[in-house]
Amino acid sequence: MSRRASPRAIGAFVVAGTALAIASVAVFGSGRLFSRTHQFVSYFDANVGGLDPGAPVKFSGVPVGSVEGVFLGLGGIQSDPSASGIPVVYNIDANLIAGRGGSVDLSDPAMIDSLISDLGMAASLATESLVTGRQYIELGMYRDRQRRFAEVPGSEYVEIPTVRTGFEEIQSQLQDL
Fold it and tell me: Does the pLDDT of residue 90 top 80, yes or no?
């Protein structure tokens, strides 16, 4: 003699299975489960309109990360955005770099310091689309250009300095005239 299945048990099983499927898609579909990201900050004194969370971070045109957030200040560290610029926090994915042939250990402070001080790494704003005005962060080696450090005390992020783009330099010179 068989016992009849409880409708509640069947319903609970279906709901639990659906929740597990949704959670699996969210975790594995985001691509962040197996990524090794490192957060950095750059302080831009230019207009960051069009730079939104999720915007790409590129090194010489090759995507290596994404913008985490654009802020007016970082948790009370900075009270006057005009003093040091607008902080932009972004992630650089070590797996993306390694997958494209790079061999940089982003968890090594000495390596980051060498990239910034010896090789002249800096961040700049670049326009992805003139139609939409969408911007992204372009990382590159700018030994011959003046790099700008905000050096905000108490920041939990490693700062990558910024450089002005050619267009920003022209605007600045026109304003000086």
Answer: yes
pTM of the model: 0.69
Closest CA to 158 of 9, 35, 27, 38: 38
Instruction: Kindly state the tokens that stand for 67.
Output: 């913008």
Q: For residue range 105-144, list pLDDT tens digits in order.
A: 777 888 888 888 888 889 999 888 888 888 899 998 888 8
Given strand 62-70, what is the order of strands in its sheet?
121-127, 135-141, 56-59, 62-70, 86-93, 37-44, 158-159
- Return the structure tokens found at 31: 């691509």
One-letter amino acid at 172 equals: S
Q: Which residue has the tokens 């650089």?
A: 92
146 contact partners, CB below 8 Å, separation of at least 6: 163, 164
In 3D space, the residue among 173, 176, 164, 166 whose CA is nearest the CA of residue 46 turns out to be 164
